[in-house]
Design goal:
Number of domains: 1
Radius of gyration: 23 Å
Largest sheet: 7 strands, mixed, barrel
Bound molecules: zinc ion
Strand order of the largest sheet: 4-10-9-7-5-11-12
Number of helices: 7
CATH architecture: 3-Layer(bba) Sandwich
CATH topology: Glucose Oxidase, domain 1
Distance between the termini: 48 Å
Number of strands: 12
Strand content: 25-35%
Shape: globular
Length: 269
């Protein structure tokens, strides 16, 4: 009979123990950061028919009349090239521009679907519904509000333009010679109808494969306000699940995209 008051006492005391709250810096210290952006330079990859690339003009570099060192540049860059955002308005009239995408759609849990094997045998590979189903069999159903990243293995060719794009030629004609993998429109359609994802990204220049002429995956995703991240770097550093990414573009008013700094946090172990 005396055990009940004793249990109550133990319960009361344990409930009153001060619980040490983990702070955000403490929590973040248990993981590692990864940089998923290529740097912007004269080597930045753009579509072959883009008349210009990235340019950095020195405005001042040296000792100022005031006797202190001073450096300042001006940069110029097309929106779509290097590691960049495709805002939905890029292929869907009236949908979000770069400045309109809510912050919560640019950060979140990232799931990495690896299709390196398939792509290594076929530069024109398009990721299929079966690839995603196989991933889900191993790792579980794609969680709501996930950001889906497709790892094709193409990222390692980034500085070898002929290999990365399929051609090093420039101009309109060269766009017919593009060869790199991306997302099959059938998969884009399936993801929209069957899963709830916030954004998609991959380590190639476009979410539609090099030989695409209608850019159907762009049309499908962006009509649903699902943004795309292209030319994502260092994707081989990420686990299949457990990464949290921040993909923050330059906030260009009415922009159809723009350079983006993507970073990922992954818990140790
Ligand atoms: Zn783009």
């Amino acid at each position: 009979m005396k055990i009940i008051p004793l249990l109550f006492f133990v319960f009361f005391v344990s409930c009153n123990q001060p619980v040490k709250k983990t702070t955000l810096p403490e929590m973040l210290a248990t993981g590692k950061w990864f940089d998923l952006s290529h740097d912007f330079s004269v080597n930045t990859v753009y579509w072959p028919n883009n008349p210009t690339g990235f340019r950095l003009d020195t405005q001042f570099n040296g000792m100022s009349p005031g006797g202190f060192y001073y450096s300042s540049n001006a940069f110029y860059a097309p929106e779509h090239g290097g590691t960049h955002l495709d805002a939905p308005v890029h292929f869907a009239k009236g949908k979000w521009s770069a400045d309109q995408i809510p912050l919560q759609n640019l950060l979140g849990a990232a799931l990495v679907i690896d299709v390196t094997d398939q792509c290594s045998k076929n530069a024109d590979y398009q990721v299929t519904i079966a690839d995603v189903e196989a991933w889900e069999k191993q790792y579980g159903k794609i969680q709501d509000d996930a950001i889906l990243l497709f790892r094709t293995g193409w990222g390692k060719f980034y500085l070898d333009v002929a290999k990365y794009l399929g051609t090093a030629e420039k101009g309109q004609e060269a766009t017919t010679k593009l060869h790199f993998p991306a997302i099959a429109p059938e998969l884009a359609d399936w993801l929209i109808k069957n899963r709830k994802i916030k954004a998609v990204g991959l380590d190639t220049p476009s979410i539609d494969f090099g030989q695409s002429t209608d850019f159907k995956s762009h049309q499908l995703f962006y009509a649903e306000n699902i943004p795309g991240f292209e030319n994502v770097a260092n994707m081989d550093e990420l686990p299949a699940t457990g990464a949290f990414i921040f993909a923050l573009p330059m906030k260009i008013k009415d922009g159809s995209g723009g350079p983006i700094r993507i970073i990922a946090w992954v818990e140790n172990g």
